[in-house]
Amino acid sequence: MATPDTTLTNLLDLDREGLEAFLGGLGEKPFRATQLLKWIYQFGVDDFDAMSNLSRALRDKLHACAEIRSPEVVSEQHATDGTIKWLVRVDSGNCVETVFIPEDGRGTLCISSQVGCALDCGFCSTAQQGFNRNLSLAEIMGQLWLANRALGCTPRRERIVSNVVFMGMGEPLLNFDNAVKAMRLMMDDNAYGLSKRRVTLSTSGVVPALDRLSQVCDVALAVSLHAPDNGLRDQLVPINRKYPLEELLAACRRYVDAQHHKAKVTFQYVMLDGVNDSPAHARALVRLLRDLPAKVNLIPFNMFPGSGYRCSGPEAIERFRGILIKAGLVTVTRKTRGDNIDAACGQLAGSVDDRTRRRLRRLVVKEAVR
Ligand code: SAH
Questions:
Q1: What per-residue string of b and e applies to 92-108 under the rule 16 or more CB within 10 Å gives b?
Q2: CB of 346 closer than 6 A to ligand 1?
């Protein structure tokens, strides 16, 4: 990997305010930020000389002190269903994964917010990788930038990425500032111009950060619920021990109330055979979500080596869905995409230099029980 020139400011690391301040430091007017945002994000340009509406003098200044540098793509895999997965190097020891999922009439980019994940959900492959660090703004925006470049859609109206979901590696609310800056850029008309309903933040339930989010950013919200009671959720999503269901659902309610569009919250529920998939669980889920504008996404569990869980059978999933639908809850079973390249939900592993030593601890436990 080429060593980055640390004397240069990477413009992907600046939000609009940051870009305006940076240009101000060069003696330039704030409207230059709009021009730069368009070149970078709508036209996918990384060469200042191609920015034809900037003066020669400004281009020279930018050459001397700035760059536009996305993380490097290590590999690009194509699944039989059209899903594309990029392994993206963010530094000499770490890679994250980004996934593009084409569907009828839209293209969803699933991006990572952290190198690994600090939470320890037992059914998630990213969790097994441990955690290293938060991604910078440039590393988050860089995933969208490089996907657009790779998909070959530079002029804005021909763009193929129509939706962005923070459902890759990491917990975006634990990288709050950069996630918020990234979402604002994604929705900025002069950058990507995505609508609020097409940017989704997914969280396992970091309640104080969710409240902060409702104050600063209006995006679609997805919550990884996975269990209808605290006993089970404590096991499956350990952050529940800190922020139990009552607190999480109250925060979801506050989020909806603070939103302009009052959109429904999507509750994600991974279907684990014999663990959370009985009719009693479904009925408990109905009671839990009764007073919220909610819809439910059932996610068939995606296997990965050493997970110890199995996916519920199709009949169990249908029965579960039937109970929810009968109770009036909009419920869809998510189609598993990209699984022949391990790009499905919870299969993203990247390559994490694990500072938590979680992987090592798991190996030791496995050896001990052998
Ligand atoms: N940390 C955030 C963002 C990750 S989103 C969150 O928890 O919401 C990834 C989604 O895939 C989450 O809903 C997660 O719970 C789910 N998931 C994780 N592992 C999975 C697996 N093996 N099979 C199916 N879904 C999984």
A1: eebbbbbbbbbeeeebb
A2: yes
